[in-house]
Write the structure tokens for this entry.
Amino acid sequence: MPRDNVMEKILIGKIVSAVGLKGELKVYNYSDRPDIYEDTEAIYVDDVLMPVRSVREQKNMIVLGLEGINDRNAAEKARGSLLYVTEDDLPELPEGEYYVRDLIGMEAVLEDGSHLGKVTDLIQNTAQDIFEVETDEGKQVLIPKVPAFVLDIDAQTRRVTFRLIEGMLE
């Protein structure tokens, strides 16, 4: 479906504080790929596109330097701002890997072909990723993203096939 040349912005982080006196920003990274900051020439800070000056990692946080934010006062003003890239900035993924945004909304089916519901989220802050599926009855089901339960992810048909064990739907 056409998007009228409007580029969708993808949320990748949030500015949480200033670092030092030269305008560097401490960023909480929402992306599972910290290298996206290094591989992107410019990042949207809320709705303003700003060239990336420098990137480094510090204790699981990103420290980002942006053109136009050159001192601590400017960095403090940016606190709380959200960081975005465009679809064109997203790196190509290897075969069998997917962006969470592409999985959300996929049809969820069982291995016998019966309809289960829709994928509503992929929870990633756990030991293993977990699919969140809303069933046709409106129940929320959590399914670990492991081969024992996820039989197939088909990007063409936008369908994920699951194998459930007794009790998972309760």
